[in-house]
Write a structure and sequence with these properties.
The chain is of the alpha/beta class. The chain contains 12 helices and 12 strands. GO terms for molecular function: DNA binding; DNA-binding transcription factor activity.
Length: 316
């Protein structure tokens, strides 16, 4: 008779990377259908695979509230671990790619898609790339700025060598390295009832109209989870994608989730950006993403400089 420990090991061997990717994306997106659209599979594929995962782990991951999928706390905990496993695999594959390229190739150029938002402030700080520019003057660098999802798609389709995006990815054929956290702030007019606070709570924010975070679609579920954790439901408002419409929305007492960056004062001169309470903080990792089959030797240099820049900023 096999021992209980042997049975556990054999059961653990059944878990595969696809199941971990499906779990991470479903927890992030909040539904099988949304996760499926990001991963280019069917909702039925994800549902069956995660059903098998529940049986293999002996843990309840999801439930139903009417037609709505509910995510258990156990699923969220396991998804965090799954992200760490996927990150290790991605780093290992990236290392293998660099070893294949070798150290004799001289990089000549690199194209980078950088996540940007014209309405919510700088997503990727300018100084994050400055070290790479300064230390690699012989490399011709082409930068294109667009929404985070567009940058991710550009990297996947090979339109650029790499992308710096909000959030990790589980799309097939892509590798990612987490660089640093992007921390959300809450922007409001200087006359807003919360303007006098140094920090604001998510439950307080929910009392006011919240602009639908269309520029932050990849972070929508993260923001929504924080509201759910505080047992509040915000009133989302679809605001036209113009600076004028967003200024008017703020003047009418609405709030925006934004980056905490200096350029917001140019967009919204009469606005303030407040930090969330520590327990209510919302962040999403900035990640460097590139294709597995992209052997441009500039990519490991870029990866190294981004990580070094982040480490130096922490120690300042």
């Amino acid at each position: 008779m096999p021992t209980e420990r042997a049975a556990e090991i054999r059961r653990g061997d059944c878990v595969n990377l696809s199941q971990l990717s499906y779990l991470v994306e479903t927890v992030r997106c909040g539904s099988f259908s949304a996760a499926a659209s990001h991963l280019y599979v069917t909702p039925q594929t994800i549902s069956k695979s995660l059903g098998d995962l529940e049986s293999e782990l002996g843990v309840t991951l999801f439930g139903r509230n009417g037609r709505r999928l509910t995510i258990t706390d156990d699923a969220r905990l396991l998804a965090e671990k799954a992200e760490s496993v996927l990150a290790c695999v991605s780093d290992m594959e990236g290392l293998a790619s660099r070893l294949r390229v070798g150290s004799t190739d001289t990089p000549r150029s690199v194209s980078i898609a950088v996540a940007s938002s014209p309405l919510r402030g700088t997503l990727v700080p300018d100084d994050l790339l400055s070290r790479f520019f300064a230390n690699n003057l012989g490399i011709e660098v082409a930068i294109r700025r667009n929404g985070s999802e567009s940058c991710l798609t550009a990297a996947q389709q090979g339109l650029v060598d790499a992308a710096i995006t909000l959030g990790r990815t589980t799309r097939e054929g892509l590798l990612w390295t987490q660089i640093c956290p992007f921390v959300f702030g809450v922007t409001m007019s200087s006359g807003h009832p919360l303007a006098g606070r140094e920090r604001v709570g998510i439950a307080e924010v929910a009392k006011f109209p919240v602009a639908t975070p269309m520029d932050f679609r990849c972070a929508y579920r993260i923001i929504e989870h924080q509201f759910e954790a505080n047992h509040v439901e915000p009133t989302y408002v679809d605001v036209a994608p113009t600076v004028e419409a967003h200024r008017a929305f703020l003047d009418d007492g609405g709030v925006l989730f934004t980056g905490r960056t200096p350029d917001l004062s140019g967009l919204y001169p009469d606005a303030l950006t407040k930090r969330l309470m520590r327990d209510d903080g919302i962040s999403i990792p900035l990640c460097l993403i590139y294709r597995k089959d992209n052997d441009n030797p500039a990519i490991p240099l870029l990866q190294r400089e981004l990580l070094l820049t982040t480490a130096l900023r922490k120690n300042m």
